[in-house]
Amino acid sequence: MTSFDEREKAFESKYAHDAEMLWKAEARRNRLLGEWAAREMGMTDPGEIETYAKAVVKADFEEAGHEDVVRKVMGDFEARATGIEEATLRAKMTELLSEAKSQLMGEFGG
């Protein structure tokens, strides 16, 4: 194997690892978002919060990107008349993605 082939293989491996870590971070962000949103909607029972968080994670499988998550949570916010605006939700998603990445870095020593 040539040096070029080795570098190419290493690059492909890093790309696959980075893509997997991003997927894990987004899934964790969605769980954290679901927990936050549940509390914002007045849920206090841990089981209810966990169930809602799982529903938010599941919502992300509807389409590529995170607009499906935004639609689900905003729809639930509107149904419960929380008064939380979409801009607030999107800002929270950004904040929680950073938190999720930090958590994963700590877990995987990355």
Characterization of this structure:
The chain has 110 residues and is mostly helical. Helix content is 80%, strand content 0%. It is built from four helices and no strands. The chain is elongated.
- Overall strand count: 0
User: Biggest sheet: strands, sense, closure?
Assistant: none
Give Rg in angstroms. 17 Å
Q: What's the assembly state of these chains?
A: single chain
Shape: elongated
Report how far the terminal alpha carbons are from each other: 28 Å
Uncertain spans: none
Overall mean confidence score, pLDDT: 86
Number of helical segments?
A: 4
Order of helices and strands: HHHH
Helical content band: over 70%
β content, as a range?
under 5%
Structural class: mainly alpha
Kindly list the characteristics that best describe this protein.
mainly alpha, single chain, 110 residues
What order do the helices and strands come in, and which of them pair?
Elements: H1 3-40, H2 46-59, H3 67-79, H4 86-108
Short summary of the structure?
By secondary structure, this protein is mainly alpha-helical. 80% of the residues lie in helices and 0% in strands.
